[in-house]
Specification:
Layout (H helix, E strand, L loop, with lengths): L1 E8 L5 H15 L3 E8 L9 H10 L2 H14 L3 E4 L10 H7 L4 E5 L12 E2 L2 E2 L10 H5 L6 H16 L2 H5 L2 E4 L2 H9 L7 E3 L20 E5 L8 H10 L5 E4 L4 H7 L6 E5 L3 H9 L1 E5 L11 H7 L4 E4 L4 H4 L6 E4 L4 H11 L3 H17 L3 H15 L4
Parallel strand pairs: 1-2, 1-3, 3-4, 4-7, 7-8, 9-10, 9-12, 10-11, 12-13, 13-14
Antiparallel strand pairs: 5-6
Length: 390
C-alpha cells in the first residue's frame, strides 16, 4: 500500500511529531510505501507579515494545493493520512485530495475541529464555550489567546472550516485517541460511523525486568511544565508528603516559575533529559504522577511509565481513566485536588506488593493494547475499511 502522509510540523518538537514519525517507521517496517508532504510552522519565521500570512494560509494555501495535486498525480497513493494542517497547509487541501478519489483518514490529535485553540483550555481552566450557541465567537469574546488579533484569527479560521464543512464532508475516517475525544466529536455533529478510537503506541523495545524497589526512591513527573499541566497540584501534594522526593523532567519557562512561587525542597526540577537520562529517570522512579488540568488526548508518558512498570496516579478527567484504570495499573484522584493526590500516593508509597501488582498490570497493558503490533493491525483495518472494494 502507498500512503500519502500530510502534516504541518510545529515550530518545535512535540509528542505529536514523535507519533507521526513513529507511525511512518511502523508502516515502512511492514512493507508499505509512505510519501510525505510536510510543511513546518518555522517557515513563518522567514516571511514578512508572518502573522497575517499565517491567517490567510490557514484558510487556503494555493502552493500547498498545487503541491498536493502534483504529488497525487506523480505517486498515485492508495490513501491519504492527514495529521495537522495549521497554520500553513490548511483544510483547503482536503477536497483536493478527495477530488482525485483518494480515501482520506485523519488522526485527531486535539480538539481543533471544535475549539479554535484545539485544547478546550484557556485562562487556566477547561473551557467548552465554543460548543455552545455562540460557537467561535466565544473565542473572540473570551480572548482565549490573550491577543485579540490571534483569538480572532483562530476563530475565523475555525468558522470558515466549519461552515464549508471541510472536515465533515471530505474525511472518510477520524482516528481518535480515546473514547472521550470520540464522544466530543459526535456531540458536535460528527458522524459516529466515521469515528474510530486508535490510541497511540509505545514504539520502543519492551523489557520485562523484575521489579526491584531498592533504588526506586522518588516520584516522577515527565512532560512540558506549563500552566495546563497542573504543577500547583503536585506542589500541594509534595508539601503534604515532605519525606517523599518528587523529580520533574521537562522544561519550565522562567516566567511560569515566577508565577508558581516557592517550590518545596522535596521537588527537584531536572530540566529536559536526553534519551539515556530518561531511561534512568524512569528506572529509578517508584511511580509516575500526572496532574494535568486539561483534556490531553493520549499523553505518551503513560505508556512509557507502564513500560518501566511504574504505577500511574492521574486525574479522573477526560480520557485519562481509559489509560490509567483505577486500582489496576494505578489510581485516579479528584481533578485539581492536591490533598487527594497526596492520599493516593501515601496509600502505596511503602507497599511493595501493591506497587508490583499495579506496575505489572501496566506492563501487561502496554504490551497488549499499546504495542506496535496492536496499533499496526488497528491502523491497517481502519485503512482497509475505507479503501475501494476490489
Amino acid at each position: 500500500m502507498k500512503i500519502l502522509m500530510v502534516h504541518n510540523k510545529y515550530g518545535k518538537h512535540s509528542g505529536e511529531e514523535a507519533v507521526v514519525n513513529a507511525q511512518i517507521r511502523l508502516l515502512e517496517e511492514n512493507g508499505h510505501t509512505v510519501v510525505t508532504y510536510f510543511r513546518s510552522s518555522e517557515e513563518l519565521e522567514t516571511m514578512s507579515m508572518a502573522k497575517a500570512k499565517a491567517f490567510f494560509l490557514g484558510l487556503r494555501n494555493n502552493k500547498a494545493i498545487a503541491d498536493i495535486k502534483e504529488i497525487i498525480t506523480r505517486e498515485n497513493p492508495d490513501l491519504a493520512h492527514v495529521h495537522n494542517l495549521y497554520p500553513i497547509i490548511s483544510p483547503a487541501v482536503l477536497p483536493v485530495i478527495k477530488s482525485f478519489g483518494v480515501p482520506l483518514v485523519m488522526t485527531v490529535h486535539n480538539y481543533r475541529f471544535i475549539c479554535p485553540n484545539g485544547l478546550f483550555f484557556t485562562k487556566g481552566a477547561v473551557c467548552e464555550k465554543c460548543t455552545g450557541p455562540k460557537k467561535e465567537l466565544s473565542s473572540i469574546l473570551n480572548n482565549c489567546e490573550g491577543s485579540i488579533f490571534k483569538s480572532t484569527g483562530y476563530a475565523l479560521r475555525n468558522f470558515w472550516s466549519r461552515i464549508t464543512k471541510k472536515y465533515k464532508n471530505h474525511v472518510d475516517k477520524y482516528l481518535c485517541l480515546n473514547d472521550f475525544q470520540k464522544e466530543k466529536l459526535i456531540e458536535n455533529g460528527f458522524n459516529r460511523e466515521k469515528c474510530e478510537v486508535i490510541p497511540n503506541f509505545y514504539n520502543k523495545q519492551l523489557e520485562d525486568k523484575n521489579y526491584n524497589l531498592k533504588n526506586k526512591n522518588y516520584i516522577a513527573f515527565a512532560g512540558r511544565i506549563s500552566p495546563e499541566k497542573g504543577l500547583p497540584i503536585l506542589i500541594k501534594a509534595a508539601k503534604k508528603l515532605p519525606s517523599i522526593t518528587f523529580q520533574l523532567a521537562g522544561l519550565m519557562r522562567p516566567s511560569y516559575k515566577d508565577e508558581i512561587g516557592e517550590i518545596p525542597v522535596n521537588v527537584i526540577l531536572r530540566g529536559r533529559l536526553n534519551t539515556d537520562e530518561m531511561k534512568t529517570f524512569y528506572e529509578n522512579a517508584r511511580m509516575l504522577v500526572h496532574t494535568s488540568i486539561c483534556y490531553e488526548g493520549f499523553p505518551m508518558v503513560f505508556p512509557e511509565a507502564m513500560a518501566y512498570k511504574l504505577p500511574i496516579i492521574a486525574p479522573n478527567l477526560a480520557g485519562y481513566p481509559e489509560i490509567v484504570e483505577d486500582d489496576f495499573n494505578g489510581f485516579l484522584f479528584e481533578p485539581e485536588n492536591g490533598e487527594d493526590l497526596a492520599k493516593k500516593i501515601d496509600t502505596i508509597w511503602n507497599n511493595e506488593n501493591e506497587l508490583m501488582r499495579l506496575g505489572n498490570n501496566g506492563f501487561k497493558k502496554v504490551t497488549q493494547k499499546y504495542s506496535k503490533q496492536f496499533y499496526y493491525i488497528s491502523l491497517i483495518n481502519a485503512y482497509q475499511n475505507i479503501l475501494p472494494q476490489l
